[in-house]
């Protein structure tokens, strides 16, 4: 039997898992929406800027609706570490990294390499307590759980991709320079590590500001300003006229991104960076399978295979082992 405190802690943890899975499921939907937006405006940076802008407006409205102010104590700036403000920059880096990786590594490795980096960095942050995170030392059971998660990722993405290739259902073109292939793979792992770092930083920022919404808004404002600077330097226009007549859901990418960042800010202090990253990854892969299965947002329909379902079960078992360790 649980004590009242233990029962409350268990419910909070389960709620955090539910939030993590939900925002993870939403993430590939954001990717599909932003891909359509990119096709319309002709530039990944313009599409990202519009998405970040919508997310910033959405979070600002949420702050107003919940009665929270936009300001915070000046002591937060004077006394807080400088790194807690760069989460938005790391988000832009991760986004840009995926844009660069796809034509060089192909769709499968563009998913797997960053995920490997996210899990690796999440465990290191938890083990050493970086970015003011609660320490969760790496144990043998925890490592075994991570191995199961990685095997599940490989089964969900790479093995299914290989089976589809064998059946002649999938053709992916790659502009890969064989000599530099490993460097691009390392870069993919690096972008994933930066994504996990962003998760930890934003979680800490939300705690310092005493508001997950404020933490997410700061991250979005920083990211929006960074993308605006990129557009100004590269002199890329924002062709708003081309957006007329497009489906209404083309604007959902920024809202989903805001929910994703806000959800991470909320759950990291509860479950730790490592588990938060892994839970979101499981949700991400589930969301990808749902989009493939039902062809949402204009995506091509692909049946979910038994290999993918088994792989998801393996990942869930890995999370359970990490939680128990």
Automatic annotation (TrEMBL):
Keywords, in A-Z order: Membrane, Transmembrane, Transmembrane helix
Ranges that cross the membrane: 12-29, 41-63, 83-102, 111-131, 143-163, 183-205, 217-236, 248-267, 273-291, 303-324
Superkingdom assignment: Bacteria
Protein name: DMT family transporter
Species per Swiss-Prot/TrEMBL record: Exiguobacterium aestuarii
């Amino acid at each position: 039997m649980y004590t009242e405190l233990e029962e409350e802690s268990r419910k909070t943890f389960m709620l955090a898992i539910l939030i993590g899975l939900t925002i993870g499921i939403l993430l590939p939907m954001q990717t599909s929406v932003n891909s359509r937006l990119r096709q319309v405006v002709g530039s990944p940076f313009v599409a990202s800027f519009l998405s970040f802008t919508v997310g910033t407006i959405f979070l600002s409205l949420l702050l107003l609706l919940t009665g929270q102010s936009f300001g915070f104590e000046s002591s937060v700036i004077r006394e807080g570490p400088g790194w807690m403000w760069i989460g938005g920059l790391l988000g832009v880096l991760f986004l840009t990294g995926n844009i660069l990786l796809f034509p060089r590594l192909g769709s499968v490795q563009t998913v797997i390499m960053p995920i490997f980096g996210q899990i690796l960095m999440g465990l290191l942050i938890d083990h050493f307590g970086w970015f003011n995170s609660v320490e969760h030392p790496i144990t043998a059971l925890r490592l075994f759980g991570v191995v199961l998660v990685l095997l599940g990722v490989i089964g969900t993405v790479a093995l299914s991709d290989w089976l589809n290739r064998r059946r002649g259902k999938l053709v992916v073109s790659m502009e890969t320079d064989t000599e530099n292939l490993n460097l691009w793979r390392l870069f993919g792992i690096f972008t994933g590590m930066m994504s996990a770092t962003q998760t930890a930083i934003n979680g800490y920022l939300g705690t310092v500001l005493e508001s997950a919404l404020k933490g997410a808004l700061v991250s979005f404002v920083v990211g929006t300003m960074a993308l605006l600077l990129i557009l100004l330097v590269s002199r890329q226009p924002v062709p708003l006229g081309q957006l007329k007549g497009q489906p209404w859901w083309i604007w959902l990418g920024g809202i989903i991104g805001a929910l994703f960042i806000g959800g991470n800010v909320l759950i990291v202090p509860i479950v730790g960076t490592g588990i938060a990253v892994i839970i979101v990854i499981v949700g991400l892969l589930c969301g990808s399978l749902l989009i493939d299965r039902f062809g949402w947002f204009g995506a091509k329909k692909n049946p979910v295979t038994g290999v993918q379902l088994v792989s998801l079960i393996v990942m869930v078992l890995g999370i359970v082992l990490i939680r128990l360790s």
